[in-house]
Each structure stands twice: as C-alpha cells, then as structure tokens.
Amino acid sequence: MSDQFKALLINQDGESFTREIKSIEKNFLKHGDVTVKVEYSGLNYKDALILKNGARLVKEFPHIPGIDFCGIVEESKHKDFKPGDEIILTGWRVGEIFFGGYSQYAKVNGDFLVKKPKNINLRQSMILGTAGLTALMCSFTTKATREELLLGDKVENVIVSGASGGVGSIAVMILNKLGCNVTAVTGKDNNSEYLKSIGAKNIINTSELSKDSRPLDKGLWDGAVDTVGGKVLENILAQTKDAGIVAACGNAADIKLNTTVMPFIIRGVKLWGINSVTASIKRRQFLWNEVGKLIDFEILEKSIKEINLDEVIDVYPKMLKGETSGRYIINLNK
Ligand SMILES: NC(=O)c1ccc[n+]([C@@H]2O[C@H](COP(=O)([O-])OP(=O)(O)OC[C@H]3O[C@@H](n4cnc5c(N)ncnc54)[C@H](OP(=O)(O)O)[C@@H]3O)[C@@H](O)[C@H]2O)c1
Hints:
9 helices, six-stranded parallel sheet, Rossmann fold
C-alpha cells in the first residue's frame, strides 16, 4: 500500500465549507478493520448533498465522502476477508459518519462488506451501486414476496415511478426481466424511448398521478415500486389491485403521504418500506448474486458517465439542480 494517496476531503471551519483533493497518509484512515484499494465509487444524490454542506449527516470534519464503493482488499483483521478479495460496499452510513469511498484507499468495518459475485466485474458493481441494490430490494419485494412468501397470485402489471432515475430505471429493467408488464412513470417525455429500451411496455407522465387521489380508484397494478412519495404514491396505492405490494423507497417528490385506510382494508394492499442502508449482509449477498441474471449491462452502460475525483467537484452542483441524468461512477485510478 502506498504511504501517500489521493482523497477528496470536505472541511467545515466556521462559515467556510471546503472541498479539496488532497494527498493523505494511511494513518489518516481511522475507522474499521479492512483496508480496501478503492477502484470505483458512485456519485449519488446523497453524496451531492454531503458535498454541498455535510447535509447534517456528517458529524466530524475533515471528512471523506462517498456512500458506495468497490475495490480489492489490501489488509484485513476481519475473519471473513483476506487480501485480494473483491468487495462491494453500500450504505451503513459509510461516507456520512464513517469515511467513504472518495479516496484511493478506504478502511471500513468488515461486517459491512459483501463479496463481489464472480459473474460481474468491479466496474459493473458500481454501475449499480446503492441505486442498484435498492432497486433489487424493491423489485423482489413487489414480485417475489407476493408470489413466493405470501403464496399470492402472479404479479403481472407493475408500475414504477421516478422511472428515469437511478433506482427507477434499474427497477424497470429487473421487473421486465422477471416477466412483468412494466408501466414507467416519468416527468420527462423525451425519456420514453430510453425507458422502452430498458424494458418498459407503457409510459405515463408523472402529471397524471400528481392529482388528488380518491380513497380507491380502478385497480390497475399487481405491484408497484415508488421512488418519489407524495401524491404519486397516494394515487398508486388507490390504483393497486387486491393483495398488491407497493414497495416505497424514496421521497424525490415529497416526504408526505396523505392517504386513507381503504386500499389496505378493502383490497389488502401492502405498503412495504424499503431501506437498503441497513439491509442484512445475507440479503445483500443473495441480491448481488441475482444481478448476473437480471441486469443487461450493455444497455445500462449507455447512460453511465465515468469521471475522476476532480470532476466530482464540478458535477455535484449540477446534480443538485437536476441538470444531470444517468449514473456517475468515479474511477479512483483516473
Ligand atoms: N430507502 C433507501 O434505502 C434508498 C436508497 C437509495 C435511494 N433512495 C431514495 O430513492 C429516491 C430515488 O433515488 P435515485 O437515486 O433513483 O434518485 P434520482 O436518480 O435523482 O431519481 C429520482 C427520479 O425521481 C423523479 N422525480 C424527481 N423529482 C420529482 C418530483 N418533484 N416529482 C415527481 N418525480 C420526481 C425523476 O424521475 P423522472 O425523470 O423519470 O421523472 C428522477 O429521475 C430518492 O428519494 C432517494 O433518496 C432510498
């Protein structure tokens, strides 16, 4: 391991908030029992908020952001990992209260790590990252939980909101691969062709689901993945058929949910909250092992932008203004 390596550091000193690429030393890394040579990290909306001002998520400065990363174990005091292992990290508040992946080396608690499945490469694991794991959790909840765990009817017609976002687009692809007819909800009409290319059969505009909802509407969906919350989620609940599962993971539109008990007590609809940050390692390992069957990387690749640490500082304000699209991955060797 090199004594000196590059990292993006944020610092707060009174009114001043800085972001700088610095050369740091190994002993600067203070958390965890596994040292990883980071190959790729991701730029997520949460990262952009942290880069802006710490987003009240970062408690101590200076800090290294980066909520997801992948790489190769360099040193380990953890029983499950040895040098050379290829690992994936998402969540667990790494990049928030623990140092994250915007660094050529990261030191992390081995209990947070997942071994990369052999049938995908490290770059592909970060093409998915946090958004991909969350989409996998939502899609399996909507489809497999009803069919397998609850022994319910087949899930055919599903709806995905925020469909051109990171979680939404990957959920569209997975649910299509799982054999569902996917309706994608998007505010961007010019994304229709892209959404069809990743597996959407029908497209509806977000405005159609942004009206006040009725307690119950015509039942249209066997299941749903909602990434936006608010009125869109209210309308989806009212349009979900008997025993449908609505997996809710996000609040891109609103944190509020103004609904009635009717979908739950008349149709037995289930509103299933998704939190990928603290999902168990057992569940993560299962889901990452499904990726090879469910994800078409050739298609996803078209919407990927690979950047370096310096470029992160230029791109994050655009992400906060909604001016970016597709997933940004950060190559730590670039
Ligand atoms: N619970 C968890 O564990 C977890 C994990 C990861 C992410 N999340 C959350 O999941 C959500 C989606 O994350 P992401 O990474 O996919 O974000 P993203 O890439 O920014 O996508 C969000 C999408 O939501 C839609 N959208 C944005 N603003 C909207 C508005 N005002 N009204 C209606 N739709 C709107 C847009 O889709 P269109 O362009 O198609 O309109 C946008 O692309 C976020 O709220 C994020 O915090 C939760």
